[in-house]
C-alpha cells in the first residue's frame, strides 16, 4: 500500500488538466500529505544531544500549501483542485522531524527545545519544491539547504545541500504527487543519515 495519503477527496473529480488556471477561490481542493520514509535504518547507538528542527525558510512562491508546477523556468503555477495538508515549510519541518525520530538516534528531537535551549538546532532553507512540466510527464525537484548549529555559541557545525528528483508517470495530479513522495523519500533518508552520523 502506498504511503501517499489523500486526506480528503470531493465526490466530483475535476476534469481540468494539471496546468489549467485556478477557476474559483472557493473551489474544494483535494488535500495531500507526504510522510517520512518507512525504510530509514535505526542508528547503531543513540546520541545524548537534544536537537531542535526549526521551521525552514523559503521564497514567497513556496510559502503556501499549493502544489507548484512550472511550465517554464521563470513561470510558476499551482495544480488546480489540489493542495498540501500544510504549508510547504511546515510540511518539510514535519518530514525532517519524523525522519529523525525514525532513526531513534537522538536523545530528543522536536520543534521546540526541551528547556530554554537545545544542544543543536537544524536550520534549513527550501530552495526547490516543485514539479516542471515535461509535456506528458512532470519532473519533481526538491532541494533543501541544511545547517547544524550549536546552540551554545551559534557555531555552524556542518552544512549541506540535499537534492533529489523524480519523474511522474503522467500529468495527472495523483501521479505528480507520487513523484513528490518518491523524491521526498530519497532526500529525507539522506538527510536523516547525515544528521545522526554527524552528531554521534
UniProtKB/TrEMBL annotation:
Residues 1-20 form the signal peptide. Keywords: Signal. InterPro entries: ABC_trans_aux. Residues 32-189 form the ABC-type transport auxiliary lipoprotein component domain. PROSITE patterns: PROKAR_LIPOPROTEIN (PS51257). This is Cholesterol transport system auxiliary component. It comes from Roseivivax halotolerans.
